[in-house]
Specification:
The chain has 419 residues and is of the alpha+beta class. It has two domains: 68-158, Rieske [2Fe-2S] iron-sulphur domain (Rieske Iron-sulfur Protein); 175-417, Naphthalene 1,2-dioxygenase Alpha Subunit, Chain A, domain 1. It is 27% helix and 24% strand. It has ten helices and 17 strands. It has helices at residues 22-32, 42-45, 47-58, 178-186, 210-218, 223-226, 228-233, 240-256, 363-388, 403-417, and strands spanning 62-67, 76-82, 85-91, 97-101, 116-118, 121-123, 130-132, 137-139, 158-162, 165-169, 196-206, 264-266, 277-283, 311-317, 321-325, 330-339, 342-352. The strands form four sheets. The chain has a seven-stranded antiparallel beta sheet with strand order 11-17-16-15-14-13-12, with helices on both faces. The chain has a four-stranded antiparallel beta sheet with strand order 4-3-2-5, with no helix packed on it. Helix 5 crosses helix 9. The chain is globular and about 75 Å long. It starts with 21 loop residues before the first helix and ends with a helix. The structure holds FE2/S2 (inorganic) cluster and fe (ii) ion (FE2).
Length: 419
Amino acid sequence: MSGGLYGATPMPASDLKNDITADDRIDRLLVAHRPGYGLTRPFYHDPDIFERDMDRLFFRHWHCLAHESVIPDPNDFELFKLGAEQVILTRAGDGTVHAMLNVCRHRGAEVCTQQKGNAKAFVCPYHAWTYGNDGKLKAARLMPKDFRREEHGLKTLHVRVVEGLVFISFAETPLDFSEVENLLHATCGQYGWASAKVAHRQSYPLDANWKLAVENYVECYHCGPAHPEYSETHALEQPLHLIEELNAKMEARTCALGIEIGSGNHWQTSREGREAIHAFRYALYDGVKTGSKDGQPLAPLMGRFSDFDGGVTSVHLGGTSFLVCYADHGMIYRFIPKTVDTCEMELIWLVDAKAEEGRDYDLDKLTWLWKVTTDEDKAIIEHTARGVVSRFFEPGPIAPMEQNELRYIEWYLEEIGRA
Ligand code: FES
Ligand SMILES: [Fe+2]
């Protein structure tokens, strides 16, 4: 039976809560998932599933935290908030990059109380334990003789810096990153991201579960109706045969520039111990050079590009990090879960490090497209967040144009389904 409010089957919400454990309840929802369909209400609304997301996905996978140009000099640091966690990103005196939790090993106070700065050490404001900017405990006042400083450094995270991008993993044993590194060299490396700088950053708080934001990012079925500005220049909206034609022309232009850009689908689950990455290319419309209002250049060419190829390279990495490369600028998208009902999206605009604002690029023009697009995305994500809390919400089938979303959902379900 179908149709009409009361024809719909309300999804189980709290009905089973008292009799079975949260884990059992989640496992039943995983089994009940209908392949080819979207996620049901509890995946966006249930605090136990949010906790499962954190345990099995967020704290297991790698995340892009920043471009390293935000801490250019020895002893620079910046503080990042990722939900309930705070991470201090530092460049030590020897130039190495470190990431550590902002939690004192004495009684847990925040040791770094500034958003950004330059410091050789962090002195806890509570009892003045003092940590070096590599996380090591250097001094602890009036502690007994047998106190072992070397056992009480700040907890550090695994860090990799690849093509200027800083990645962190909270996992004790991080997922193998070699496939990711190779594909980042073959994509961002060609665009010169290692010698880029941050032109602008903007954070968007969203009243929505984090998965609604990511699902929206990975599909372009909504681009036609929701993003008229984006659809003026980006061809993803077109039927497949037209896209293939445009892509072939783009590849010929890239090839004529002597540039080979990698693509590949390593979207395996963490079961095999490796981080997932997917990179693909797509064309802008004929004559469009980059992601700008009028299709015209925004900034000096980057990396190996001596001319525009009219293409875009898109990278999906782990569960929360997404990159977009144009010949003259780059974009980093960070998705940060906060609570079951809220998240944050940070957009970071990259240009060549030598480019000067005002002389080589106009910041308003550079940021126009993705600001307009992200304002529209915020609205549709929040519309969806308010819709899916209905106990009568039943997900529909994923459309053929939403294949990346389908893959993301399947990957996500496998991730949170395994212990
Ligand atoms: S909590 Fe940091 S020194 Fe006591
Ligand atoms: Fe969008």
